[in-house]
Write a structure and sequence with these properties.
single chain, alpha/beta, Rossmann fold, 8 strands, globular
Length: 231
Amino acid sequence: MSGTMIEFERPDGQQAPGYYSAPAHADHAPGVVLIEEWWGVTDWIKGTADNLAAAGFRVLIPDLYRGRTAAVGDEANHLLEGLNFGDATSQDAHGAAQYLKTSGSSKIGVAGYCIGGALAMLCAMDDVHEFASAVTFYGLPPAEAGDPGMIAIPIQGHWATKDSFFTMDKVDAFEARLVAGGVDHEFYRYDADHGFCNTGEVGNAGLGHYDAAAAKLAWDRMVAFLKKTLA
């Protein structure tokens, strides 16, 4: 199964590109807005969308870098520095959700990896209530983004205990705010490093931290969570 690049409309009326993948003959399947890692819309994240489609979801990846991808960390940092997080969530992510909703999906989830995971949490913290659930893989929003204890949807998080980007003390502090706010959440910690789901295949700038067992367990947990919360 493979998807295709499409254009969708943002809330501000601008057109944005995205990678769309869906199961055959399932126009009303639940939708997932999938947000890229800092590398951009690479073959790996497209493959992840295709795998979610095979699991029964209509998936749209908003192309936040507008066709650009990075091969090394310096390039990724340069692209990330030019990214407006507020615009990415309020316009690109919400526009992608609206596209899925108006074209057949009654419930929409949001998921992301690394920086995409941080953006997924920002979407969950938004008061627009476009999403029914959210999943983050080793990505936290900045502390100044607001109080995660106010999140009103179920969230799931996957964390790497050896992560030097989003360290366990930050994850623990974030989860403490969720507990204090009574947020419906499930957090999983893996004996792995940042980016452990990224296979680092040719055409994709993985960090070389792929852990097949952890990635498989996290994937199964995410699919089960999305099926439950988007049913």
